[in-house]
């Protein structure tokens, strides 16, 4: 893998036209849409703003592109999907997460197709793929984060169905989702099951969640009070909730990295542009060796993080299970992307620290990634256990 801030993908003739079309959409039509609606990454998004982007992205072939052809996708490999995720992450668009379906769309729902019944696919999943509905995952609770077995949300038998009671937090896309894939403890058992919960059902309340460091209005609390779910809403077999909720962990861990790499790439691009144009002491920032060294370090860290991520993805596509490598990638990408953001802010100076500037927002978002989807310390635990067992 060679270094290029604008990869051409000449060696991937099937993927190259998709990448070029995606870049055109991101920098053209989607950018125009955001300007017309005065949207930034911290704007409160409602369904009326997001759904047109879902449906237009679907029309262009991007929304759910990773899915098999029977669901309107192209059956992309993990590596090919990663390329597209990196592109949207590098776009600088506020709605980057809507184009491929990260935000309540097919990228979030695709992992559960293998567990869903044909009826569940038609009722819940196919409308998500078509941009008609949205979903969220609800696993985390106020006192159950990394230790998911500490969850208190319970499913109590009621005839053929169950009554759910509990409180879920950090349900990303919850504010505009139609249903949740929700994991609950079976009452009186040390077993967990997954359910498809309609968010407008009696006994289910969706509250605005805490606003994270990134300022994005994308989180919801889901409060359940004796909410009934029928047998047709059980996802997979009883007792398989954690396997479903935590399944594909290696794949998901790796596929979070390309978006973050895209953000790091965007920071490199805007920092290089700033260094070339910012006048200081009769020259530009780019003339200063101290700035040159910072940019060299940023580019080297990006290249190393990207290389190891795509190497692990290639192994995954070959049928291997690079579990330890996935821990390493999440750790290395998270830590180095944040270092890149920190240097970008240092080089931009005051302009990079102003609320609302792109550098400042990416700094905050990349700081979060050192904790989200498993903190760096959790990744180190996984690496050490794999090496020492």
Automatic annotation (TrEMBL):
<keyword id="KW-0560">Oxidoreductase</keyword>
<dbReference type="InterPro" id="IPR009100">
    <property type="entry name" value="AcylCoA_DH/oxidase_NM_dom_sf"/>
</dbReference>
<dbReference type="Pfam" id="PF02770">
    <property type="entry name" value="Acyl-CoA_dh_M"/>
</dbReference>
<dbReference type="GO" id="GO:0050660">
    <property type="term" value="F:flavin adenine dinucleotide binding"/>
</dbReference>
<dbReference type="InterPro" id="IPR009075">
    <property type="entry name" value="AcylCo_DH/oxidase_C"/>
</dbReference>
<dbReference type="InterPro" id="IPR006091">
    <property type="entry name" value="Acyl-CoA_Oxase/DH_mid-dom"/>
</dbReference>
<feature type="domain" description="Acyl-CoA dehydrogenase/oxidase N-terminal">
    <location>
        <begin position="18"/>
        <end position="132"/>
    </location>
</feature>
<keyword id="KW-0285">Flavoprotein</keyword>
<dbReference type="InterPro" id="IPR036250">
    <property type="entry name" value="AcylCo_DH-like_C"/>
</dbReference>
<dbReference type="InterPro" id="IPR013786">
    <property type="entry name" value="AcylCoA_DH/ox_N"/>
</dbReference>
<dbReference type="Pfam" id="PF00441">
    <property type="entry name" value="Acyl-CoA_dh_1"/>
</dbReference>
<dbReference type="GO" id="GO:0070991">
    <property type="term" value="F:medium-chain fatty acyl-CoA dehydrogenase activity"/>
</dbReference>
<keyword id="KW-0274">FAD</keyword>
<dbReference type="InterPro" id="IPR050741">
    <property type="entry name" value="Acyl-CoA_dehydrogenase"/>
</dbReference>
<comment type="similarity">
    <text>Belongs to the acyl-CoA dehydrogenase family.</text>
</comment>
<dbReference type="Pfam" id="PF02771">
    <property type="entry name" value="Acyl-CoA_dh_N"/>
</dbReference>
<feature type="domain" description="Acyl-CoA oxidase/dehydrogenase middle">
    <location>
        <begin position="136"/>
        <end position="208"/>
    </location>
</feature>
<dbReference type="GO" id="GO:0051793">
    <property type="term" value="P:medium-chain fatty acid catabolic process"/>
</dbReference>
<feature type="domain" description="Acyl-CoA dehydrogenase/oxidase C-terminal">
    <location>
        <begin position="239"/>
        <end position="388"/>
    </location>
</feature>
<protein>
    <submittedName>
        <fullName>Alkylation response protein AidB-like acyl-CoA dehydrogenase</fullName>
    </submittedName>
</protein>
<dbReference type="GO" id="GO:0005737">
    <property type="term" value="C:cytoplasm"/>
</dbReference>
<dbReference type="InterPro" id="IPR046373">
    <property type="entry name" value="Acyl-CoA_Oxase/DH_mid-dom_sf"/>
</dbReference>
<dbReference type="InterPro" id="IPR037069">
    <property type="entry name" value="AcylCoA_DH/ox_N_sf"/>
</dbReference>
């Amino acid at each position: 893998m060679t270094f290029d801030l604008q990869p051409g993908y000449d060696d991937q003739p099937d993927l190259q036209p998709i990448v070029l079309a995606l870049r055109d959409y991101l920098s053209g039509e989607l950018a125009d849409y955001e300007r017309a609606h005065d949207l930034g990454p911290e704007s409160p998004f409602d369904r009326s703003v997001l759904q047109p982007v879902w449906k237009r992205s679907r029309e262009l072939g991007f929304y759910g592109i990773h899915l098999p052809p029977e669901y309107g996708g192209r059956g992309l490999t993990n590596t090919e999907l990663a390329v597209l995720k990196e592109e949207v992450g590098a776009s600088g668009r506020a709605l980057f997460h809507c184009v491929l379906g990260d935000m309540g769309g097919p990228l979030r729902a695709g992992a559960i197709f293998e567990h869903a019944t044909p009826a569940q696919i038609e009722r819940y999943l196919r409308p998500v793929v078509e941009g008609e509905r949205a979903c969220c995952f609800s696993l985390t609770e106020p006192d159950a984060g990394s230790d998911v077995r500490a969850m208190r949300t319970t499913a109590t038998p009621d005839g053929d169905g169950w009554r759910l009671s509990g409180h879920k937090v950090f349900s990303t896309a919850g504010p505009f989702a139609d249903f949740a894939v929700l994991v609950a403890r079976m009452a009186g058992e040390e077993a967990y099951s997954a359910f498809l919960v309609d968010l407008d059902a009696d006994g289910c309340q969706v509250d605005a969640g805490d606003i994270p460091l990134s300022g994005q209005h994308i989180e919801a609390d889901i409060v359940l009070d004796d909410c009934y779910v029928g047998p047709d809403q059980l996802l997979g077999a009883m007792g398989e909730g954690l396997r479903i909720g935590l399944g594909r962990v290696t794949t998901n861990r790796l596929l979070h990295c390309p978006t973050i790499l895209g953000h790091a790439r965007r920071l490199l691009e805007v920092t290089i542009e700033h260094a070339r144009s910012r006048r200081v002491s009769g020259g530009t920032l780019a003339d200063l060796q101290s700035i040159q060294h910072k940019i060299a370090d940023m580019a080297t860290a990006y290249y190393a993080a990207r290389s190891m991520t795509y190497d692990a993805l290639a192994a995954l596509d070959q049928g291997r299970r690079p579990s330890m490598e996935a821990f390493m990638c999440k750790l290395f990408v998270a830590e180095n992307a944040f270092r890149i953001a920190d240097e970008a802010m240092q080089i931009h100076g005051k302009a990079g620290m102003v609320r609302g500037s792109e550098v400042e927002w990416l700094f905050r978002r990349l700081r979060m990634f050192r904790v989200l989807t498993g903190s760096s310390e959790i990744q180190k635990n996984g690496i050490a256990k794999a090496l020492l067992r």
